[in-house]
Specification:
With 307 residues, this protein is an alpha+beta fold. The chain has two domains: 46 residues; 196 residues, no CATH class. 34% of the residues lie in helices and 12% in strands. A six-stranded antiparallel β-sheet has the order 4-5-9-6-7-8. The chain has a three-stranded antiparallel β-sheet with strand order 2-1-3. Strand 1 and strand 2 form a beta hairpin. The longest helix is centred in the first third of the chain and has 47 residues. The protein starts with 47 loop residues before the first helix and ends with a strand. The N terminus is likely disordered.
Length: 307
């Protein structure tokens, strides 16, 4: 037994007795006080060195394991993201969509025989304006920096059958005020669309509005009744007029952002600004036998309601 320096004189500490049933009472002297030998004093807390060394190693191992796990997780996520980025365009093409449906894809795209040609909004506006002006023998803007395959497809349309070739992804403006109908029977936004079409396409066969507004001849809740819609006719329904109608439909889509266009409908297809990432969709007419309701003989365009 060794006197305990922390107790009053005359008191001693008895050897500790093991509580382990497989061990007898300790016959040896109490562990040394020296921290350098790793012992502990039964009446004194372990010093900083004795406490910190084993725990520090354990913490280091835990931190190292967490770091490795984090790195592995990030690597797996990176592989998944890379795979999606590579596979997404092919998956979209398989279901009849183009890369404009991707958040990181191009703003506009033209479907050609060689695949989709990416365009910016400005390029799409310039391209669609150029083919429209050229079609009526007017001077067109320079498009030498745009893929010739895209220009050819926009001018001539798909080789087998007339149909959509260009689509754009737009974000409808927020905070637009609701507009009242003007004397023309159109809202100011619709009047702006009408004027812009006239500058590029010249004289057109128009309908769907009249001074004072219309209150019949269209579906329930039609934008025509609010003065927000215009119909541009291409009659009779034949291949030539359908291809001419698609020149206008493409032009409207390319300019939808700046003209606040909400919907373009033509030839059994519809493009909607809010769903523009999906491109052109099949339009379901309430009467499949009615050429007018199917929008086979006219391009319908309406502008954002606002408010």
């Amino acid at each position: 037994m060794c006197p305990n320096r922390n107790l009053p004189p005359g008191r001693v500490v008895l050897p500790a007795v093991s509580t382990d049933p497989h061990q007898g009472a300790s016959d040896g002297p109490p562990p040394s006080r020296s921290s350098s030998e790793g012992g502990t004093d039964p009446d004194r807390a372990p010093g900083p060195a004795a406490r910190g060394r084993p725990r520090g190693r354990r913490r280091g191992r835990r931190r190292g394991g967490c770091l490795v796990g984090l790195l592995v997780t990030l690597a797996v996520l990176a592989l998944i993201a890379g795979g999606l980025a590579l596979a997404a365009p092919r998956l979209l093409e398989a279901v009849g969509r183009d890369r404009t449906a991707l958040p990181w894809g191009p703003e506009c795209a033209v479907q050609t025989e060689g695949g989709a040609v990416a365009l910016t909004i400005e390029e799409a506006q310039r391209a669609t304006t150029a083919v429209a002006l050229s079609a009526r023998g007017a001077e067109a803007p320079d498009t030498s920096d745009i893929d010739p395959a895209a220009m050819e497809r926009l001018a001539q349309g798909p080789p087998d059958d007339a149909g959509p070739s260009l689509t754009c992804r737009v974000s409808p403006a927020s905070g637009l005020e609701r507009e009242e109908m003007a004397e023309s029977g159109l809202t100011p936004r619709a009047e702006e669309v009408l004027a812009a079409m006239g500058e590029v396409f010249g004289e057109q066969s128009l309908g769907g509005y009249e001074p004072g507004g219309v209150d019949s001849g269209h579906g329930t809740d039609s934008a025509h009744y609010d003065g927000r819609a215009i119909d541009v006719f291409f009659r009779p329904v034949n291949e030539e007029n359908r291809r001419e109608g698609w020149l206008l439909a493409h032009w409207l889509v390319a300019h939808a952002g700046e003209l606040q266009v909400a919907n373009v409908i033509f030839d059994d297809k519809i493009w909607n600004a809010r769903g523009s990432a999906g491109g052109w969709w099949d339009y379901r007419s309430p009467d499949p036998d009615n050429e007018i309701l199917r929008h086979l003989d006219h391009v319908h365009v309406d502008v954002q309601r606002g408010g």
